[in-house]
Design a protein that fits this description.
Blueprint (H helix, E strand, L loop, with lengths): L2 H10 L2 H5 L3 E5 L10 H10 L4 E4 L6 H5 L5 E11 L2 E8 L17 H4 L1 H4 L6 H10 L3 E4 L10 H11 L3 E5 L14 H10 L3 E4 L9
Parallel strand pairs: 1-2, 2-3, 5-6, 6-7
Antiparallel strand pairs: 3-4, 4-5
Length: 210
């Protein structure tokens, strides 16, 4: 698949695909702060009958440099600030080797796993979204119910003006996200509809079992 085909595939998935464990577009491995081996995740996905998965390690695409497979969507989760709000921006269907993306990747392992390091990200969000598009991908806001934004609608509207393509709606909000949560999934879905955004989903997996 090329980048355009990956993007078009993502657009086809619906709520049932994400909630019935047919698609999982938010997975972390040992290449960032996850516990799972990337090869093992791919093997599990095939055994369990997943149509598509995305390994979305923080600020790195090292898993994708080693693994290419028909069910694996090239992806990454970038740490970036949107004004006063620290957010995670998912990039899907990218050409991982595109020159415009190289400056945004982690320069060392700490930038992929240590929260205290990642929160000091200097990435420019407008430039990052433009680079994602130039690399053939789409930019999707991860777990939006968790952001300490006074108005999530206002923040998403601003991101849309920068070129945001989608928003993660079908997300279980477990782990820390179940406690640190400022907005409801219902609100997130309404915002997605309001701005005609692609709706994606995933479990934000950090454990060893898919």
């Amino acid at each position: 698949m090329n980048s355009e085909q990956f993007v078009n595939t993502i657009k086809l998935y619906n709520k049932e695909d994400f909630e019935n464990n047919i698609v999982n577009l938010h997975i972390h491995t040992i290449f960032s702060d996850g516990k799972a081996d990337a090869f093992d995740i791919l093997s599990q996905a095939k055994e369990k009958g997943y149509k598509k998965i995305a390994i979305t390690d923080h600020n790195t695409v090292e898993a994708h440099r080693l693994i290419q497979d028909e069910i694996l969507i090239p992806a990454v989760e970038f740490d970036v600030w949107c004004g006063y709000v620290f957010v995670h921006l998912l990039a899907y269907g990218i050409d991982i080797n595109h020159p415009d993306l190289q400056e945004f990747y982690a320069k060392n392992k700490k930038e992929t796993e240590a929260n205290i390091v990642r929160i000091f990200s200097k990435r420019n969000i407008k430039k990052l979204i433009r680079a994602i598009h130039n690399a053939g991908g789409i930019a999707v806001l991860a777990h939006p119910a968790c952001y300490w934004a006074i108005s999530l609608d206002f923040m998403v509207k601003k991101l849309v003006s920068y070129g945001l393509d989608g928003i993660e709606v079908y997300y279980p909000y477990d782990r820390l996200r179940s406690v640190v949560k400022f907005h409801s999934r219902k609100t997130v879905e309404k915002i997605a509809d309001k701005y005609n955004l692609i709706k994606t989903g995933g479990t934000d997996l950090h454990e060893v079992e898919l």
